[in-house]
Amino acid sequence: MKKWLTVFIMAIVLASVAGCGQGGKEPDKQGSEGSSKEKMTINMMTVSYAGGGWPEDHPVIKEINKKMNIEFKVQWVPSDTYPQKLNVMAASNEFPDVFFIQEAEFNKWRDKGIFMDVKPELDKYPNLSVFPEDGMAIMNPKDKYYGFPYYVTDTRDTLAIRQDWLDKLKLNTPTTVEEFYEVAKAFATQDPDDNGIADTSGFSFSVVNNKFSQIEPLMGAFGLANEWYEEDGQLIPMQVQAEELKAFAEYMNKAYREGVLDKDFMSNKLKDSVAKLEAGKTGIAMVVTNEFFNNTLPTLKKLTPDAELVQLFPPKGPTGIQATQTLLMTNKIVINNKLDAAKKQRILELLDYLVSDEGYDLIKHGLEGVHYKKENDDKYVKLENFDKDRPQLLSTWFFRRFDPGIQIRKWDDQEYANNIKTIIANNEKYRLKNPAEGLASETFNKKGAGLQQKWMETMSKVIVGQLPLTAVDDAVAAWKRDGGDEIIKEINEQYQLLK
User: Fold this and answer.
1) Who is most buried in 10, 212, 310, 446, counting CB within 10 A?
2) CATH class of 157-325+433-438
3) Are residues 60 and 54 in contact, defined by beta-carbon separation less than 8 angstroms?
4) What is d(CA 178, CA 255) in angstroms, rounded to the nearest whole number?
């Protein structure tokens, strides 16, 4: 008996040492119910965009299959039909094993037992357990994590300004909304491109889905919320901020009348304002940070080789506010709750691997020797197969770390990488979050689009001078009367429920 006890105790000690030796880099497979010795098929579904997804024999899928001892079946669904696809699956209760889901569908099914609550399992998975609590909690009831957030760099976009135009006109970089206006006016009236034609404007933006877009730092400067703000424990929407809206509209109306604002802003599509910056037609625009140095600036330099763009910090408003509105992080990666325990654990192992050091390197850069190579001086070189195979699609369209450098590759120029990180870090200082991020309202689902359209029609007419400034008060009153008050009530009920 003593000999048997000694052997048993030694076995426990050795198992503990082996477990501690794994650290936090690789998934802990030994303690899960779905042992990696058993081969298992895992069906995954996510959105796809231009170019579509991968074939079944893609080298990254093969590597994942070998590493995790699974048969990884990926279904890529075009983004414009993705919600319909999910709704068809919901009708027959036949969801994939693990899948990407957008805000509306997640909120619709969150409390119906469809998604696995992963919170009790996180301690087993070192790379999943380090996801920030606030990111995991978004849109979830208290003490529940129905899946994982699809990370977005929420301070990704930045204002950019033509430094060469500032230099030519002997102007300083603007720091306030008043200085912003004067600089933009000079860009519109003092021929900064030196072509002898009055063909430039100071700045541009667009109206997309009846929302102001690419002008968020100016909106924030006038005290407007990023959709919603909290006051005395209650959430209040931007659409009812009458005084702030009037100050913003008055500023924009003056810019429109004096030719400082692009006259075509109402007909602009989402990317038109940056396209006009790239074409030398405007001097200030919002730019996607990851495209700043590898797309926007090179495009501009093809036209004007001496052109220079620099980041413009959000200008200070009348009360000193500086704000860059954050992008929403309301999409999720969820696990089908009706799966057996072994398969759920195997999927968690897979997700944990994808954000481990080894797995994340694979889904961000591809396979060494196939998609990139390492040279003698510890530098990396991208190979032709990277652009052909697009091995990064899992990290861009499905699942990734909370990584602001998600689109920076190991072979990128270090100066470029540092510039991207610097811009994002600068924006972080002025982050304006939306406290209602991901909250649902039945009235909003039914009436929100119509309310927003009418509200925006009035705001736009005020900006272009077709209605007086007092019409803003009418827009606020109509929004509240025709359904907005009910939306506020329902959003606050959700807010209290999920706090």
Assistant:
1) 212
2) alpha beta
3) yes
4) 11
